Amino acid sequence: MNELYAGMDLHSRNTYIGIMEKDSKKKVFEKRVPNHLSLILGLFEPFKDQLQGIVVESTYNWYWLVDGLMDAGYRCLHLANPSAIKQYEGLKYSDDRSDAFWLAHVLSLGILPEGYIYPKQDRPVRDLLRKRSFLVRHRTAHILSLQSMIERQTAQRMGSNKIKTLTSEDIKLIFDEEHLVLSARASSATIEFLTHHIKEIEKAVRARIKIRKPFEYLLTIPGIGDILTLTIMLEAGDINRFPRVGNFSSYARCVSSNRISNGKSKGKGNTKNGNRYLAWAYIEAAHFAKRFSPRIGRYFQKKAARTNEIVATKAISNKLARASYYIIRDQVPFKEEALFC
Q1: Cα–Cα distances in Å, from 102 out to 85, 220, 292, 333?
Q2: How many helices (H) and strands (E) would you count in the chain?
């Protein structure tokens, strides 16, 4: 019985399926089908016993397809990392058909760069925390806008905590022009609305999931509290999928993507490769750490003096990401002195 491998080039409305034999590379089935799970399962059914592997391209909409195939008994599922797959350079023409069979081919050779199939049961909570970070960014934008508006009109600098507590009457006392009052009230109402939903999400997440043992010691890092710990835990998943600390810090987008040869820049790598939510979590942690830890604060000031504040914050986030890798893996508390050795 010939071993078969299937590649699925997934799009928003349809999927191109290519099934091939491992040894002879013979193409035994190919078809573009609409994104309907029952239809796809029906097409795979005649090949179910022979299929040794199915690879799905990791696009934004892979959940329904991978989950549906796994629920139907297909355990040989693989998620391809499209940014790491090197297409055959001799090709003059490439389309969905060639992409599907190329995925099947590299899977059959055992050289497929794989993405992580995140556990289905934890995915809704992780995505809810992602929604929280989305709302936090929007709230910050409105806070900064209102701060700037107040400073322009009154030359007074107001802190973000004070901005969050402004009432409609407070705003009327700050501005003496009706259009400015209307603009400020719009920002203030939006901040209040977003704050309500952020707190609601935090409450729901805390009620649904607890910090797992390997991640408990993250709370010993200055600047990392419950929410950031839960974010790191849910975004990182199984820490053992990262063989080295550099893999983890790269996944968290804490390392440079520059390509240097003979001391000269040869361009940049894929700056968007990795997990943007982990990157956000460690930047947030860096901002808090430099406030709560005198030693980290001094490091920030020294680094910022030599470069700038953005580079200094990024350097701290990288140190925290590297430290947290060992904390999670070895289940040990944070040691500040080890951060600067």
Answers
A1: 10, 46, 51, 45
A2: 13, 7
63 and 180 housed in the same domain: no
- Residue 320 reports pLDDT greater than 90: yes
The pLDDT of residue 88: 52
Residues listed for the chain: 341
Q: pLDDT tens for residues 17-40? A: 999 998 878 899 999 999 999 999
Out of 142, 176, 208, pick the residue that ends a domain.
208
Residues 226 and 320 in one domain: yes
Question: How many domains, the chain?
Answer: 3
113 in any annotated domain = no
225 shares a domain with 201: no
Q: Which residues pair with 56 in a beta bridge?
A: 8, 79
CB 103 within 8 A of CB 87: no
Structure tokens at 213: 């043992």
Contact assessment for residue 97 and residue 14, using Cβ atoms and an 8 Å cutoff: no
Provide Rg for the chain, Cα atoms. Answer: 25
Query: pTM here?
Result: 0.83
DSSP state of 114: B
Considering only residues 131 and 256, tell me which one the structure prediction assigns the higher pLDDT.
131
Contact 116, 122 (CB under 8 A): no
* 225 in the same domain as 183: no
The residue among 165, 191, 208 that closes a domain is 208
Per-residue pLDDT at 266? 47
> For residue 325, what are the domain limits?
213-339
The backbone torsions φ and ψ at residue 97, rounded to the nearest 5 degrees and listed phi first, read -65, -50
pLDDT of residue 261: 46
Beta bridge partners, 16, equal: 9, 32
